[in-house]
Amino acid sequence: MNELRQDFPAYDTADGAFHFLDNAATSQICRPALEALVEFETNDRANVKRGVYARAERATNAFASARKAAAFFINAPSPDEVIFTSGATLGLNTAAHILQHHLESGEVILVSELEHHSNLVPWQLAAERRGAKVRAIPVTDDGRLDLDKLDDLADRVKIVAVTHTSNVTGAVTDVARLRSFCDATGALLVLDGAQRAPHGPLDVQALGCDMYAFSGHKAFGPTGIGVLWGRYDLLDSSPPFLGGGEMIRRVSIERSTFAPPPHRYEAGTPPIGGAIALAAALEWSMSQDWAALGAQERDLTEKMLNGLSDMCGCRLYGPTGTQQRVGVVSFELEDVHAHDVCQLMDSDHGVMLRGGHHCAQPLMDRFDTVATVRASLAPYSDQADVDALLNGLEAVRRKLA
Ligand code: PLP
User: Fold this and answer.
1) What atom of ligand 1 comes closest to residue 115's alpha carbon?
2) Cβ 118 under 6 angstroms from ligand 1
3) Is the pTM of this model over 0.90?
4) Which of 49, 165, 329, 368 is buried deepest, with most CB atoms within 10 A?
């Protein structure tokens, strides 16, 4: 058994048939995050930035510390550049809202065919508001961004918004190449880190991006919390996205003036317990040996890829090797719908998978399909999970094909 499971309460009571391979959708919460949540909700629960009593001050201090921990996890220059959101989706919508103020009519937002809808629809909406255009970097047959096509797409590009890691193919984006492209064109670079954040600490400064978003629930934290990081000058260049309490300086009936970032973008009571628990999850992540966990993930990914490519009637999508990818593997069984595969794998084999378009319909179009099955690993995954996946699929294939 993978010893790391001791850090994950979901495995305390799980029996041997618990094979959770839907980590790209939501991973399991780690024990420090759950304990931090219980501790806050039990002993420190109060609203932040308002109360003058000790309990409220403890809550406010814990929330401020959570922002520092999130900044540390991504190596942000300042915690004031960290906005707590409900997840990557709100983060990317906020990024699109902010950066639309830098867009002129006719300019281009460059996304990719690989994007989750959360990093596509907000840019479409922003483009519509500003009279701008959305264009896409194509995807190679093995599910990576085709960066050789970048030069053809350089005309009037103002924003490049792409995934750091694909939720369908597991491909990790070559950010350095995108950074050079942005340097040459003067474009701003936004990364959707929803699938990268679960793979250890990040360095937004080394990546050279201008904004970065991720969700807590995929990175061993609670649901309902996420992070948007942005360069302070960009955060300070835009009016707020949402209005409400705690994001203002002064309000009269006619007009309002606004607080500086990050508070300008955190209208209303923030997800206090979520932020505190996320900080604990990020600290747990920072305490792990990611070189060893990466090697373990590559080993299990290779076993999945080998088993699936040997399986009769199984079509794999995405990179066939283990370099520059994470353990997110998409495939189809010939003549069997992905939902049927997932249902049988759960009911008959105790393997939890995801089937569908994965909120990436343009990519499904690119691959000329409507749905794939997806198996996704986490640091607590082990050989028994992969064996259950491959044996179960073989049985499902024989039953249904
Ligand atoms: N981006 C990617 C690549 C994702 O995989 C997801 C979720 O699956 C999201 C964005 C949206 O994340 P959330 O639903 O947590 O806001």
Assistant:
1) 3
2) yes
3) yes
4) 329
